[in-house]
Amino acid sequence: MGKGEDRYMFSYEPLGEPEADSGARDAEEQAAAGFLAKVSDLAFKGGPLGIELTRLDIAGRTFAFREVREADSRTLASSAGAVPTDDTERGEMCWMPEPGSPAWAHLAWLVRELPFLHTFREYGPEGGPELRGVEAPSREWADVLVEHRGQQWRVRVTLEGRTEPIEFPGMVIGELFGEGGHRKLLVEGEPGLVDAGI
Fold it and tell me: What pTM does this model have?
C-alpha cells in the first residue's frame, strides 16, 4: 500500500483519538445482539402456545413472559413464504411478518431487528440512541426503550391492527433520534413517549 492510500484507511473515524473502549463496546453490542436473537426465538416459539413476551432488559440480560388465556390462532404470514421453526434456518432469512400476522410474530421480528440500532450511534447531528430494552404490556403495542443524551425515551411500535410490516425499526429509530425528529413526535401527556409510526 502506498503512502497516499494510508490516510484513507480509517476515514470513517471521527477526528482525534479513536475511542479507547471501542473493542469492549463492540463486544458488548455483539453480546446484546446474541441476547436479542435468543429472546426473539423464544417469543417466536412461545407465541403460538399463548406464552407472550412482556419485557426485556439489555443491561440485566433479563426478560419476562406472560401466559394468556387464549393463544392467537392467526397464521403467521410472510412474503418470504413458510417461516421455519428451526432457529438457525429462521435466523438466516428475512421472515418479516405481513400486517395481518399475530402480535407475537411482529414482536419477535421487532426484537430480532433491534441490534441494527447500534450501527446508528454516530448518525446525524445528534447521534443515535442506546437501546435499553423493550416493554410489551399488551398485544396492542410495544415500547422500545432507549437512552439518548442522558434522557430515557420510549418509542411506541404498534403490534395489533397493523397496515404495513415493521420494516427496519433499528434504522428508523436511529435516524429519528440522530436527526432530532423524535421531539416532534412526542405523545401529549406521556413524557418521553415517541409515536414514530413504526
Answer: 0.86
